[in-house]
TrEMBL record:
One of its GO terms (biological process) is polysaccharide catabolic process. This is non-reducing end alpha-L-arabinofuranosidase. It comes from Gemmobacter lanyuensis. Keywords: Carbohydrate metabolism, Glycosidase, Hydrolase. GO terms for molecular function: alpha-L-arabinofuranosidase activity. Homohexamer; trimer of dimers. Its EC number is 3.2.1.55. Coiled coil: none annotated. It comes from the Bacteria.
Length: 500
């Protein structure tokens, strides 16, 4: 089956914000404790952070990490995580039915972010708390000194402020599961007032207001319209979240789910444009897609903890989805969608980064290892930076209950600052090879400089701590001649080809 694609140097979508490839660490399960932080682990640094995990995060080149939640943040008192560790309280985390030791707080996380070469994106609690706690936290984190909260930070060992630019105004405030859930109007007012106070401290902050937790929410997209009505001129981003699953065991439908993602982004982009016009605003508000991933493999096994049958364990194994080869294809399609919508989606956070629905897993006391989905994220993060190309794609497609004409080829293209090109491709066809014929117009590229392919595995094949069989191999057949890139894309495969 032929897949004809045209790329033209003058036909682009947008400059990609590198933060499109961000991620997320929540105080949830083993993300923090025995994930990033494990004093006594053979690779632990002087702060108790696992160096093996830091190396993998650095390999992924994660530009920004959202912290500390997630549902956790909606009943979190940030002050519990500062001061001498022996004085920090153990609290019950109502979101995940666990105990929180508070041995990691803002100081420790900031040290970790530094070591991992990433920026922090902090969330404030607008569930059980509100404006006052948010403004105190901001002052603690960003004010140089000479005020109550900034001097307390200095007393606690950090002289310089961290200068965090990006702040989330709560988390999933539309969700009935959220501690302190609000109606759109209640939340819109609180978010507006919180943004006003935070901006009174520093106008240059980048503020993220909560959009819907999922396009399945009954309040979507009215939620966005109401919340933006209150906040459009006070925020920079509206957050969207979406998780993907193949409970139905239907690969074709599963791999078409990014059509839903695309609709979701398109609808919210429409609400943003509507609100901008309604308010006669000159500003643009963008989307921060700050939670997305495949999440379903662990749902059943998590019941015991989440229903409280285990009491209040500290750092129990939760949301430890073990990803398979099929999920590689799904994550590849999702990332391609974000690249294609990079005109409106500026920030993205793969949820999450370590142990909790994550590309990186750890064994307590043992090794850290790469899940199958580590790789499409790695390739997009490392080579999907620059300018997104507006590709013309001509390829047969198929239909599902919710989408028609889903092309068998899912493709995104990016031109890097140095002129090199990267194409990310998923062949969704279950049995047929796609003969890629990609016409390159107006680019100064003449050679294949990298070709990585993931194919030929059973869809249910997984990686583990001792063996990672689902890993990329070098592609063999990609060629450029007379301004055309050709390659054979095997059925159900992921591929990245770079040209220079
Ligand atoms: O990422 C896991 C959870 O999913 C987050 O805590 C929450 O925001 C979302 O429902």
């Amino acid at each position: 089956m032929r897949a004809a694609v045209t790329a033209h140097a003058g036909y682009t979508i947008s400059k990609i914000d590198p933060r499109l490839y961000g991620s997320f660490i929540e105080h949830l399960g083993r993300a923090v404790y025995t994930g990033i932080h494990e004093p006594g682990h053979p690779t632990a640094d002087e702060n108790g952070f696992r160096r093996d995990v830091i190396d993998l995060v650095r390999e992924l080149d994660v530009p920004i990490v959202r912290y500390p939640g997630g549902n956790f943040v909606s009943a979190y008192d940030w002050e519990d995580g500062i001061g001498p560790k022996e004085d920090r309280p153990v609290r019950l985390d109502l979101a995940w039915h666990s105990s929180e030791s508070n041995q990691v707080g803002i100081h420790e996380f900031a040290d970790w972010a530094d070591a991992a070469g990433t920026e922090m994106m902090l969330a404030v609690n607008l569930g059980s708390r509100g404006l006052d706690a948010a403004r105190a936290f901001l002052e603690y984190v960003n004010h140089p000194g000479g005020s109550y909260w900034s001097d307390l930070r200095r007393k606690n060992g950090r002289e310089e402020p961290w200068g965090v630019k990006m702040w989330c105004l709560g988390n999933e405030m539309d969700g009935p599961w959220q501690i302190g859930q609000k109606t759109a109007a209640e939340y819109g007012r609180i978010a507006f007032e919180t943004a006003k106070a935070m901006r009174a401290f520093d106008k240059s902050l980048e503020l993220v207001v909560c959009g819907s937790s999922s396009p399945k929410m009954a309040t979507y997209p009215e939620w966005e319209a109401t919340v933006l009505d209150y906040t459009y001129d006070s925020v920079d981003y509206i957050s969207l979240h979406m998780y993907f699953d193949n409970h139905a065991g239907d690969t074709a439908a599963y791999l078409a789910q990014n059509a839903r993602l695309d609709d979701y982004i398109g609808t919210v982009a429409g609400v943003l444009a509507f609100t901008k016009a309604k308010k006669r605003s000159k500003r643009d508000v963008y989307i921060s897609f700050d939670e997305w991933n495949v999440w379903y493999h662990s749902r059943e096994q998590d019941r015991t903890v989440l229903e409280g049958r285990d009491g209040w364990p500290h750092a129990p194994a939760l949301l430890e989805d073990i990803y398979n080869f099929e999920d590689v294809l799904q994550v590849g399609c999702i990332l391609n969608t974000f690249i294609r919508r990079s005109d409106v989606v500026k920030v993205g956070c793969l949820a999450q980064l370590v142990n909790v629905i994550a590309p990186i897993m750890t064994v307590p006391g043992g090794p850290a290892w790469r899940q199958t989905t580590f790789y499409p994220y790695l390739f997009a993060s490392r080579h999907g930076r620059g300018t997104a190309l507006n590709l013309a794609v001509d390829c047969a497609g198929y239909s599902t209950d919710f989408a028609s004409d889903v092309p068998y080829l899912d493709i995104a293209g990016v031109q890097a600052e140095d002129g090199t090109l990267a194409f990310f491709m998923v062949n969704r066809h279950p049995t047929e090879t796609l003969a890629l014929d990609l016409s390159l117009e107006g680019f100064a590229v003449g050679a294949v400089i990298e070709d990585k392919v993931m194919s030929g595995h059973d869809l249910r094949q997984v990686n583990g701590p001792d063996d990672t069989p689902v890993a990329p191999k070098d592609g063999q057949d990609a060629a450029i001649a007379a301004g055309r890139l050709t390659a054979a894309l095997p059925p159900l495969s992921y591929r990245m080809i770079r040209l220079g």
